[in-house]
Design a protein that fits this description.
Layout (H helix, E strand, L loop, with lengths): L3 E11 L4 E9 L2 E6 L5 E6 L4 E4 L1 E3 L18 H10 L2 E4 L2 E3 L6 H12 L6 E2 L2 E3 L5 H13 L4 E5 L9 H14 L2 E5 L3 H13 L7 H4 L3 H18 L3 E3 L5 H12 L4 E5 L2 H4 L26 H13 L4 E2 L36 H10 L6 H15 L17 E5 L4 E2 L18 E2 L2 E7 L2 E4 L34
Parallel strand pairs: 1-4, 1-5, 6-7, 7-9, 8-10, 10-11, 11-12, 12-13, 13-14, 14-15
Antiparallel strand pairs: 1-2, 2-3, 5-16, 16-19, 17-18, 19-20
The structure holds N-(aminocarbonyl)-beta-alanine and zinc ion (2 copies).
């Protein structure tokens, strides 16, 4: 049957498995045909042999998330999803965060309100569970999973968010029972608070001491502990925003021993080092790059690059956590030069994620285009229950696509970006590629110059449970 709404001609289509030249016929927002010389469409785009990838899925970003510490995120669902679309991302999965004492259901309802009528592209939600009471784990969680919220994050640090070991085990056990995916922020809270106290007492307050307060062993220990708990409970786990060698070694050990341990890393661990947090010069600019875990050094960047190509990492996300540098709500919410422990954690990156990896990963030969697609789209779709609707170029999938421009090298500058943040940590970087066009369900949401002015067109995506096969672990003979 012909009658396409849109045909993209001469695409060099990339999936997680293949690269092939094809026309892409789109009808009713979905890919209806792949092949050469497809019939005419009501509209036609000549890709002219340029790479076409599935739209990116940013499975770790924070938009309009209440912080509770006086800081306010700069991006809401409008500016956040607009920025995402301009950078080639067509699905985002931010976090509905439960405040301690709050019901999880209320946190999710609040987050639906924040997203509703604003998003330009499709979105799903992870939850953050900070108060895993029996009511939350046994009643609210199962019902929210039935509503399509099938993944949640737990924290091992931050006073307002962290769980103790027993609470982690209870949450993992509930995830096993319900088939949910658990993401873990792995840093040891007590080590961090002890180090922070010592650093402040010695007068070491500058932004760069944020990195000293969270050395690699803090991440290594927590990663090890999270993996052990997941093994005990016999449930898959996904360690998020992995920063360097010591955590990678724990993850590789687990994967080598057959445990279902997945891992995510982010651009900041490839392109920033702790030098970006500044020196002792009294300037506050290093606050721009404060995030947790902190960026490490060049040698660790190399370990992260290797992990992207050798299979340690399944997911490459932005961890976009947008706080203004200037003004009273962002990095300076606690004054113009607060000590490092009072600076909001997180950096922007939802728009730059794909272009950084394509430019510095694919075009340098560090990873192949198929691995790029697996890390940025197909694997997150699979792990979070959005596949095959999202994450591939296949008949029946949503026509979420990126047509790449690789012939216009340019210098990155925050004025080129569409987020609401007043800086990018990647200012001044030379990039060799950028999405020339982004399509969401067959509609052009970024034409290379302007985002589509269509707040609210993005739809909430209920996720399936990923339900990986539940093999019994060596440890577990207990009744779960
Ligand atoms: O520093 C970071 N990563 N902030 C965002 C929140 C989180 O833990 O992912
Ligand atoms: Zn985190
Ligand atoms: Zn995050």
């Amino acid at each position: 049957m012909s009658g396409f709404d849109l045909v993209i001609r001469q695409a060099r289509a990339v999936t997680a498995a293949d690269i092939f030249t094809t026309d892409i016929g789109i009808r009713n927002g979905r890919i209806a045909a792949l092949g050469r010389n497809l019939d005419a469409g009501a509209r036609e785009i000549d890709a002219d042999g340029r790479h076409v990838t599935p739209g990116g899925i940013d499975a770790h970003c924070h938009f309009d998330q209440p912080t509770g510490d006086g800081s306010v995120m700069a991006d809401d669902f409008l500016t956040g999803t607009r920025s995402a679309a301009c950078g080639g991302t067509t699905t985002v999965i931010p976090f509905a965060c439960q405040q301690k004492g709050q019901s999880l259901r209320a946190a999710v309802e609040d987050y639906h309100r924040r997203a509703g009528g604003k998003a330009l592209i499709d979105y799903a939600f992870h939850m953050i569970i900070t108060d895993p009471t029996p009511q939350v784990l046994n009643e609210e969680l199962p019902s929210l999973i039935r509503q399509g919220l099938t993944s949640f994050k737990i924290y091992m640090t931050y006073d307002a968010l962290k769980l103790n070991d027993r609470q982690m085990i209870d949450a993992l056990s509930a995830a096993r029972r319900e088939g949910a995916m658990v993401m873990v922020h792995a840093e040891n809270a007590d080590c961090i608070s002890w180090l922070t106290e010592k650093l402040l007492a010695a007068g070491h307050t500058a932004p760069r001491f944020h990195a000293s307060s969270r050395p690699m062993l803090v991440e290594r220990e927590a990663t090890h502990r999270a993996i052990a708990f997941a093994e005990l409970v016999d449930v898959p786990v996904l360690i998020v925003h992995v920063s360097g060698r010591e955590a990678v070694e724990q993850i590789r050990w687990a994967q080598g021993n057959g445990l279902r341990v997945y891992a995510e890393t982010c651009p900041q661990y490839l392109f920033l080092t702790s030098d970006a947090l500044g020196d002792d010069d009294g300037h506050f600019h290093g606050a721009k790059c404060i995030c947790s875990p902190p960026p490490r050094d060049k040698a660790n960047q190399e370990v992260i690059w290797q992990g992207l190509s050798n299979g340690v990492f399944q997911v490459f996300s932005s961890d976009h956590a947008p706080f203004h540098f200037d003004g009273p709500l962002g990095k300076k919410a606690h004054g113009s030069n607060p000590s490092f422990d009072k600076i909001a954690n997180g950096i922007p990156g939802v728009e730059t994620r794909l272009a950084l990896l394509w430019s510095e990963g694919v075009l340098t030969g560090r990873i192949d285009p198929q691995t790029f697609v697996a890390l940025t789209s197909t694997n997150p779709a699979r792990l979070y229950g959005l596949y095959p609707r999202k994450g591939s170029i296949a008949i029946g999938a949503d026509a979420d696509l990126v047509i790449w421009n690789e012939d216009n090298p340019f210098t990155l500058d925050n004025s080129l970006l569409h987020h609401a943040v007043d800086y990018t940590p990647y200012e001044g970087m030379q990039l060799r590629a950028w999405p020339g066009m982004t399509l969401s369900r067959g509609e052009i949401v970024w034409d290379g110059h302007h985002p589509l002015d269509a707040a609210g067109r993005g739809k909430f995506l209920p996720c399936d449970c990923p339900k990986p096969a539940l093999a019994r672990s060596r440890q577990t003979e207990i009744l779960l």
